[in-house]
Amino acid sequence: MAQVRLERLRKSFGDNVVVDDLDLTIADQEFLTLVGPSGCGKSTTLRMICGLEKLGSGEVYFDSEPVGYLPANKRDVSMVFQSYALYPHKTVEQNIGFALQMMRVPKSEIGERVRKTAASLGIENLLGRKPRELSGGQRQRVALGRAIVRDAGAYLLDEPLSNLDAQLRGDMRVELKRLHADLARTFIYVTHDQVEAMTMSDRIAVMQGGVLQQCAPPEEIYGKPANMFVAQFMGSPPMNFFTGGLTDVEGRRTFRSPAAVLALTEEASRAAEDFPAGEVVLGIRPEDVILGEPGDADAADSLQGTVFVAEPLGADVLVTVDLGGELIKARVPAPFRVGIDKAVPVRLRADRAHLFAKESGASLFSPSQWAPQPTPIAPASDRPTDS
């Protein structure tokens, strides 16, 4: 299987349209993640690719061959379910080898492939156990083993890590990414967790209301979101938004809102010449909000806020700041020692500012250069600038 192609895929349940004219191509050996909130249509899309859900309209192609008419067992795919779907009366060895047994593979070959698969997942010592004797992480490995033992053309994974604790999810993300590299097969992964999507994917397809919002590599999804929904959904914490207008101050385009004033960069100012009239939305990532020290002598050009709450995260601190009656998030290096309700100077990095249309939410401008590293607290004169 060289690629999976979805062409004008549509599915509805009664009057509820869950997938709406979806066009998407997944390349051979690509790790593509469908991500979005609950009810956005991502799992339904996966089930239509697999053949567990009938197409409403449109077509699914494997290479150039349409497969929408084929039942699930006739498609060269293997699926991992959120609930694991293990047979409780069978051992781990029997669960992993069941698909091969149904394909009438010789018993000697089944045993060899099951042992090889179990060894690759580190569960070779569990082959004689029943699912009830396993932990959640071990059950997840068995479910993965049952899928990869088939050597399918594509592997479909429907939120396989959602039942695991945070530490185990992190470990399994690493294992899945390594497994994809070792198998050299197409992976189509469904999750509502943007951290899973960002850390594992070659490309991310963001969906909302059954409609594809953007499909791009993780760094582009984060650095150049197509609209406000993508900007807010992909990021933890999400992007800060300010609604206001653009004016000319001393020959430079300046954004003004009740909570913020920011002179735009030359790059943004040139782009703003073509903006439609009306209000716009300024977007700033939390790591691009710079907090100074109370009483900072260089804070004359800063906005004045008060600390609402601070949440230590180890190396970083997530600070919620009340900025003119509007709460925004800042991610700053630890330690942060300004107390709750204390005044703090706030600077927004103009070179990292995004602009969106207020009505449609579409992106009007994103910085051409973007770096994901957090910005240290520093006076305005010492702040890094792009060359």
UniProtKB/TrEMBL annotation:
Region spans: Disordered: 365-387
Pfam families to which the protein is assigned, alphabetical: ABC_tran, TOBE_2
Domain (ABC transporter) ranges: 4-234
This protein's UniProt keywords: ATP-binding, Cell membrane, Hydrolase, Membrane, Nucleotide-binding, Translocase, Transport
PANTHER family per the UniProt record, alphabetical: MALTODEXTRIN IMPORT ATP-BINDING PROTEIN MSMX (PTHR43875), TREHALOSE IMPORT ATP-BINDING PROTEIN SUGC (PTHR43875:SF15)
Record-linked CDD domains: ABC_MalK_N
Keyword Repeat: no
GO cellular component, one term: ATP-binding cassette (ABC) transporter complex, substrate-binding subunit-containing
Keyword Translocase among record annotations: yes
GO MF assignments: ABC-type transporter activity; ATP binding; ATP hydrolysis activity
PROSITE patterns per UniProt: ABC_TRANSPORTER_1, ABC_TRANSPORTER_2
GO biological process, alphabetically ordered: carbohydrate transport
E.C. number: 3.6.3.-
Protein name as annotated: Carbohydrate ABC transporter ATP-binding protein, CUT1 family
EC primary class: hydrolase
Entry superkingdom: Bacteria
